[in-house]
Design goal:
Blueprint: E1 10-18, H1 27-36, E2 40-49, H2 60-73, E3 77-80, H3 86-96, E4 99-101, H4 103-114, H5 118-133, H6 159-194, E5 199-204, H7 210-218, E6 235-241, E7 245-251, H8 261-266, H9 268-275, E8 279-285, H10 291-304, E9 312-317, E10 328-331, E11 337-341, H11 350-361, E12 365-372, H12 377-386, E13 389-394, E14 400-407, H13 408-417
Helix pairs in contact: 1-4, 4-5, 5-6
Length: 429
């Protein structure tokens, strides 16, 4: 279906500086994206404009300069660091005599190369189809007339209409399959909720070091590389936290500024782990000069997927690249951790991270001393099953005196389940 270009291509990059902050893109990020796609940049052309040109996005003189550069370097693709309209893409292709790709197309291509799981592949295909459906005119110019000729006359359908219909059908089929995958995930999440296992989700700008962090914490081997969008599919692992017990850690796709809307929509399921999390670990590459901007970008995407009200713990990663910064935990006035300074690569500060995780998730823990009479041996069994006993002894009356620590949710459940409630047994001495 797709004329996917092969890796190792020669590309001419085009970057336009706009005065308007909101349409500004980062050239260094484009170069990172291009190398992540396995493309070789042979030339970079930059220009400044106050607004995009309707026909070529850049001025017509610049468009000719791009065409000349393509010819001189024998390039086979032109990549713009901006979103182009279908007509701009076609006009540029006509003048450059080669493929023209915009930022969205490039990100989609990287996603297509990286998707590993069935769901990831479906989501990429969905985003690609949505992107391509607006650009269908390309490639069918020789068939724009109604199909004619002997044996083909009749009401007829142009090739374009046929394609649109096929695309619509394929998109519907993918959405149905994604819905099924989502239901399966939903069940997994429900059973975790029932077991009251907290979920911690890693979020952050692409290439901030989330997967390295994930591998270090969980001691697993998720694909991690110094390139954009190394992780596409959500990976879940169980971790054990002191005083909290088991928790689920989820690694998710990296965010990027001006992430195409099709992609945000297509990756809703991947980001669902983020929406349902009890705590977000916002991984930030503090060695980057503009890390504050990237944090804002991540928060903007979180807002878009309704996950901005979840408690966040900011992880200032890659401190090994900075001088005079040692691992530490920053706390707010209530003593709740807000930032942890660590290096996932060298492992510095990871003990502090698990301490901060325990503090954040342990807030929902309760501790009590209970005095339980011998007649209530059944309750003893329940407490043993919950594995929440910190200390136990017997007093002179034969009562069992026990210190317990358990998640507040478990305590509330027992309160409802027992005839006289657990608080009846709390020792207030």
């Amino acid at each position: 279906m797709f004329d996917r270009y092969e890796a190792g291509e020669q590309a001419v990059l085009v970057h336009v500086n706009f005065a308007d902050e909101s349409s500004k893109e980062d050239l260094a990020e484009l170069e990172l994206l291009v190398s992540s796609a396995g493309v070789n940049a042979v030339d970079v052309l930059t220009t400044s404009r106050s607004a995009p040109h309707a026909k070529y996005f850049v001025g017509s003189g610049k468009a000719e300069e791009i065409a000349a550069s393509v010819k001189a370097h024998d390039a086979n693709v032109v990549i713009f660091n901006h979103a182009l309209s279908p007509s701009q893409e076609r006009n540029l292709e006509a003048i450059c005599k080669c493929r023209v790709l915009d930022r969205t197309g490039l990100i989609l291509d990287i996603f297509a190369q990286r998707a590993r799981t069935h769901e990831g592949k479906l989501q990429v295909e969905l985003a690609q189809l949505r992107h391509i459906s607006t650009r269908l005119i390309r490639g069918w110019t020789h068939l724009e007339r109604q199909k004619g000729g002997i044996g083909l006359r009749g009401p007829g359908e142009t090739q374009l209409e046929t394609d649109r219909r096929l695309l619509r059908a394929r998109i519907k089929a993918i959405l149905r399959r994604l819905e099924k995958v989502q239901k399966q995930r939903e069940q997994g999440r429900r059973s975790r909720k029932r077991a009251e296992i907290p979920t911690v989700s890693l979020v952050g700008y692409t290439n901030a070091g989330k997967s390295t962090m994930f591998n270090t914490i969980t001691d697993s081997h998720v694909y991690a590389a110094d390139q954009l969008f190394a992780t596409l599919d959500p990976t879940l692992r169980k971790i054990e936290l002191k005083d909290v017990g088991p928790a689920i850690l989820a690694d998710t796709v990296g965010f990027i500024r001006h992430l195409p809307h099709d992609l945000v929509a297509a990756f809703k399921a991947t980001l669902q782990e983020t929406q349902e999390a009890d705590l977000l670990l916002h991984v930030v590459d503090v060695a980057e000069a503009n890390y504050r901007e990237t944090m804002d970008e991540v928060n903007a995407v979180l807002e878009e997927i309704d996950a901005d009200d979840i408690q966040q713990l900011i992880i200032c990663n890659k401190i090994d690249k900075l001088d005079e910064i040692s691992p530490r935990i920053d706390r707010d006035e209530d003593g709740v951790p807000t930032r942890v300074w660590v290096s996932a690569q060298t492992g510095e500060g990871l003990d502090l991270l698990s301490q901060a995780l325990t503090d954040c998730l342990g807030q929902s823990m309760v501790s009590y001393t209970l005095r339980i009479p011998p007649a209530q041996s059944k309750l003893r069994g329940v407490l043993y099953d919950l594995n929440c006993i910190a200390n136990e002894a017997y007093d002179s009356d034969g009562d069992w005196v026990v210190d317990i620590k358990m998640p507040a949710a478990d305590w509330n459940r027992l309160e409802k389940r027992l005839d006289q409630g657990l608080s009846h047994f709390v020792d207030h001495h």
